[in-house]
Design goal:
- With 269 residues, the protein is of the alpha/beta class.
- It has two domains: 143 residues, 3-Layer(aba) Sandwich (Rossmann fold); 120 residues, 3-Layer(aba) Sandwich (Rossmann fold).
- Helices cover 45% and strands 17% of the residues.
- The strands form three sheets. The protein has a six-stranded parallel sheet, with helices on both faces. Strands 8-6-9-10 form a four-stranded parallel sheet. Strands 5-7 form a two-stranded parallel sheet.
- Helix 1 links the parallel strand 1 and strand 2.
- Helix 1 packs across helix 10, helix 2 crosses helix 3 and helix 8 runs parallel beside helix 9.
- The longest helix is centred in the middle third of the chain and has 18 residues.
- The protein is globular, with a radius of gyration of 17 Å.
- The structure holds D-glutamic acid.
- D-glutamic acid binds next to helix 3.
């Protein structure tokens, strides 16, 4: 029994970590396409093809439910995969919707019409591909009216994190926050719209200041997944859990251990 968690690389581990804490009895199969990360500088069709192929591999490994713990893949591939038809009994979900439901104070899965919400000025930090897709604004418009979103494409941050260069990642985050603040001086909320960014959450919060509420996806996606599994109890799959990568397993295991501060052993996908 394993629920699949997919990312282009290491960022999805922030979602996996929260999901394991929230659902200690559920097994997870993590799959990082590290050989092809970052996705955020690829075009939408490329991201769709790569995501689709990885998700099919995860379904073949026995997962019935795969979470795209990657905003870039969720933006470029989720809707297209769902509209193209999924194999019998298989499901794929993304990470935008739980975040937007939390931001707009909705119950998980509440699809009622859009309404006025408390938050009016939102800063979105994401990869260039996610920002270009405008998928966040589209999903938000289904649920809320009158919210002003200023998006900042954070080039370079994912590469720096994948390379383990946290000093560069911090410097880039500070400069992206400065750029955002020039466009929107007083955001009320900031969305970390890339699953790599929770690893930099303190740097974002410090640069944004204490008055800005920072939303990051780990625990929100975990809570929404727990609710989904209660409503769909047959979606645990029949495969075994584990950690798979298309990259170099020993290098990826080392980086993952650094991030999660526990030993993780990846194997070749
Ligand atoms: N963690 C992915 C996301 O949430 C990173 C994308 C990338 O590989 O650039 O968007």
């Amino acid at each position: 029994m394993a629920v699949g968690i997919f990312d282009s690389g290491l960022g999805g581990l922030t979602v996996l970590d929260a999901a394991q804490r929230r659902l200690p009895d559920v097994d997870f199969l993590y799959y990082g396409d590290n050989a092809r990360a970052p996705y955020g500088v690829r075009d939408a069709d490329d991201v769709y093809q790569l995501t689709k192929s990885a998700v099919h591999d995860m379904w073949d490994k026995g997962c019935d439910l795969v979470i795209l713990a990657c905003n870039t893949a969720s933006a470029a591939a989720l809707r297209r995969m769902q509209e193209g038809g999924l194999p019998q009994g298989k499901r794929v979900l993304g990470v935008f919707v739980p975040l937007i439901e939390a931001l707009t104070e909705r119950q998980w899965g509440d699809n009622s019409p859009p309404r006025e919400v408390e938050v009016k000025h939102v800063a979105l930090f994401a990869t260039p591909a996610t920002v270009a897709s405008r998928a966040f604004q589209r999903e938000l418009a289904f649920r809320a009216i009158g919210v002003d979103v200023e998006a900042q494409a954070c080039g370079g941050v994912v590469d720096a994190i994948e390379d383990g260069d946290m000093i560069l990642a911090e410097a880039l985050v500070r400069s992206h926050v400065d750029a955002l603040k020039r466009k929107m001086p007083h955001p009320q909320a900031a969305i970390l719209g890339c699953t790599h960014y929770p690893l930099m959450e303190q740097t974002f919060q410090k640069a944004l200041g204490p008055d800005v509420q920072v939303f990051s996806q780990g625990s929100l996606v975990a809570d929404s997944l727990a609710d989904y599994l209660t409503r769909h109890p047959g979606m645990h799959g029949d495969g075994e859990g584990g950690f798979f990568t298309t990259g170099d397993p020993s290098r990826v295991s080392d980086r993952a251990a650094q991030f999660l501060r526990r030993e993780i052993t990846f194997q070749a996908a």
